[in-house]
Amino acid sequence: MNNNISDNIKRIREEIADLAIASGRKPEDITLVAASKTRNADEVQQAIRAGVDASGENRVQEMLSKHSEGAYSGAPLHFIGTLQSNKVRQIVGVCDLIESVDSSALVTLIGKKAVSLGIVQNILIEVNIGREPQKSGILPEELDDIFGLISQTDGIFAQGLMTIPPFYEEIERNCNYFDAMMKLFVDIGAKKYDNTAVRLLSMGMSDSYADAIRAGSNMVRIGSAIFGMR
Predict the structure, then answer these.
(1) Which of 41, 116, 182, 201 is the most exposed, having the fewest neighbouring CB atoms within 10 Å of its CB?
(2) What single DSSP character describes residue 135?
(3) What is the pLDDT of residue 167?
(4) Furthest-apart CA pair in the chain: how many Å?
(5) What is the pLDDT of residues 158-180, one digit of tens each?
(6) What is the CATH number of the domain that holds 193?
(7) Mean predicted confidence (pLDDT) in 17-35
(8) What is the DSSP string of 187-212?
(9) What does the alpha-carbon distance between residue 134 and residue 223 come to, in Å, rounded to a whole number?
(10) Residue 121: in which H helix or E strand, if any?
(11) Closest C-alpha to 40, from 227, 212, 192
(12) What is the pTM of this model?
C-alpha cells in the first residue's frame, strides 16, 4: 500500500473527528468520499482499504473503465461530475449515489432508466450557490420546483444537496456560501416531499472541507489531500 495515501487518510480522519466533535456530532456522521479523478484502480483500492467511505468519479468513461477493473470493490461509488443526458443510461444502477443532478431533465431521465431496471436510484441535487454562469447546478429558488418533480417521479430518491461553491482566499467569503447551503438544507429538509429524505449535505473539498464541516456539511469530497497533486 502507498503509505502516503494511507497516512493522508489517517490524518484527514483525525481532523474530521475533531471537527465533528467540536460541532456536536460524531466522527462517523461525516462521510469521506475519495475524489478519484485520474487515479488508477490500484490507488482507488488503496484508499478504500485505508478507510474512505466511498469513491467519487467525475467522468463517466473513466468510471466505467475503472469499474470493470474492480476499482471500487468494498465501498459505495458516487458520481460527482457534470452528468450529460446521453450518459444517464450508463451510470444508473452502477453508482450508489449520483451527487450532481442539476436539472429537471436529468431527474426525469434517471427515473425512467431506473424504472426500466427495476431499481430506485439515489441522488443529490446540485445547487449553484454562487450563481456562477460557468458552473452547473440549479439556483436556490428552483429547489422547490425540482423537489416537487422528484416527488412525482418513480425510480428516484433524493437524499439531499451538493454544491461546489466559489473559492476565495478570504475564509469569511467561503463560509458565507457554506452557511447559505446549510440554510437551504434545513429549509428543504423541513418540507414534506415524496421520494425524498434530506439527510446528506455534500460540500467541502481538499482546500475547504474543514470550514464546510464547521458549517454543517456531513459529506466531503477529497482528492488531492488524499492522493497528492495530479
Answers:
(1) 116
(2) S
(3) 74
(4) 48
(5) 999 999 998 766 667 778 999 99
(6) 3.20.20.10
(7) 97
(8) HHHTS--TTEEEEEEE---TTTHHHH
(9) 22
(10) strand 121-127
(11) 227
(12) 0.95
